[in-house]
Amino acid sequence: MARRTLDDIFEDDDPYGLLDVKPGRSGGASADLEKDRAVLEQATAFFKENGRAPDRDAVDINEAILGRKLARVRDGAYAVDLLGDDASGMLVLQEEPAEPSQPSWRDEVPEDEAFDLSLDEIFDDEDFELDAELVKPSKVTPAAERNVSDHRAERRPCRDFKIFEPLFEDIHAAVQRGDRELVPFTKKGGTETVEGDFFIQKGQYAYVAEKGERTMKGGRSDHRLRVIYSNGTESDILMRSFEKGMYDDPTARRVEGRGFGPLDDRWQDDKAIVNGVVYVARSKSTQPDIQRDRLILHKIGVTSGDVQRRIADARNDPTFLFAPVEIVATFELVGMRRDRVEHILHAFFEGARANISVPDRFGRNVRPREWFYVRPDTVAKAVAAIKDGSIVSLEYDVETQSIRKR
């Protein structure tokens, strides 16, 4: 029998359809499909964890990359093939239309100086694969950890509201008469919140009844406030949080007296008169240089509430050198502004101010400014001089550790 050629074989009948080969996708196409399937699985996992699809414009770079990859898969050639694997509907989600962009300095870049590739094109490039370890911050405190508060300020019923109720009635009447004016609360104002301030926030009057000593929160100075609201509630919110809430409320107003604000003598006189306690604290720190001078090194502070409550968390407070303290003297203030008294005392003993540095829990050095090398009995004389007004003619002699006339 003559040897059959391939042409002879192909011309024969093919009863089993062995030669009826359907065109299939190339190995490269199959690999692309698997890449898109992997992106879909990552997006689905993100959706299960966060309850939403990844945002291509997110601040987090990993989410932004995933969002851009998912958008590419939605518009790709294999979107239909992957619908069976899309249990969470990642491929059919419609992105919300973006808000019109605001003009910025970027709009002024000449076209001939623009980049050839957009960020979307860069992120969508298959060759652009970032190792998560390369973009993971190593020495940055995570925002979630940085913003964790050691105390959550919540509104609660004000038990002594009867004391403050007449103040709200008086301030409302003054506003109605025009004796007080409502000024929009803006960052441009630059006026720090002080005790006795009145505000309108979300339709309610807010009165700053107390302002605690300066503390450090997240590397920034802050004060704990006691804010009383006209609906009978109160909050011990941090000053910066309170002010942020005012900034975010377009209807928020500061209630001020007529005149030129802080530059007007009548403006301060218009504030409420408050009482308080001057206290002298001695540290129980085990730090050698603090232990050595503990009999002469004292913190001079002023508080509106209970002194023992003020020092209860001293071991976690930088103003107390992150250590327990003992109170060695207290002096009551009546009809005097606490912030003014504290400022006068600290300025009076400026020459004896201690230059102390203590590390916080992150290893950063903190330098409290409320500690002085001064005896408690000398502080007592200074407080008495403030009360009778003679402080203006006196000065503190650091060498002799005594108060003398100027």
TrEMBL record:
Domain Bacteriophage T5 Orf172 DNA-binding: 292-386
Family matches, as InterPro entries: Phage_T5_Orf172_DNA-bd (IPR018306)
Superkingdom, natural source: Bacteria
Protein name: Bacteriophage T5 Orf172 DNA-binding domain-containing protein
